[in-house]
Amino acid sequence: GRTDVFVMGATNRPDLIDPALLRPGRFDKLLYCGVGGSSHAAGDAAHQASQAQIITALTRKMTLSPGVSLERLAAACPATFTGADLYGMCADAWQRAAVREVRRLAELQERGDAAMAGREDGEEGGCGGVVVTQEDFEEARRSVVPSVTPEMLTKYEGMRAKFA
Fold first, then answer.
1. In 3-state terms, what secondary structure has residue 112?
2. pLDDT tens figures, 122-159
3. Residues of 66-83 as b/e, b for ≥16 C-beta within 10 angstroms?
4. Buried b vs exposed e over 3-22: b needs ≥16 C-beta within 10 Å?
5. Which of 55, 47, 62, 60 is nearest to 83 (CA)?
6. In the chain, what are the domains?
7. Full-model pTM
């Protein structure tokens, strides 16, 4: 019967939903999932912890330099960074580290470095792999343009008040 039907929808523009869908008995529950900075002020410990958790998840397969502080990185990120912005920052940081590693290996090969000769990947003196540093993250953070402006955030908060 009809009791087995469950419908869920998602949108980033609730203002464009046909009002007929919002009548009682249709979508009975509306849930606002805001931008990271919408529920916490920039500099707020809970907001920084949330961003640090997202960054930790995004970097779990990366090799990080021992001096990397994801908490410090999260504290430096704007409150309006979305999950996509954080992903872009982490991907950019890894790419910077990869380019540096490729250049290092090219220089070793160009010099005919004995340390490279006959070594397998991962062996001492050989290809150490891509290691992301704090500076890679900081440069990447500075290059990311937040996809949500403070004005857009204000508009989204207004929609939350209206629809949630």
1. coil
2. 444 445 689 999 999 999 999 999 988 888 888 888 88
3. eebebeebbbebbbbbbe
4. eeeeeeeeeeebeeeeeeee
5. 55
6. 2-163 (1.10.8.60)
7. 0.75
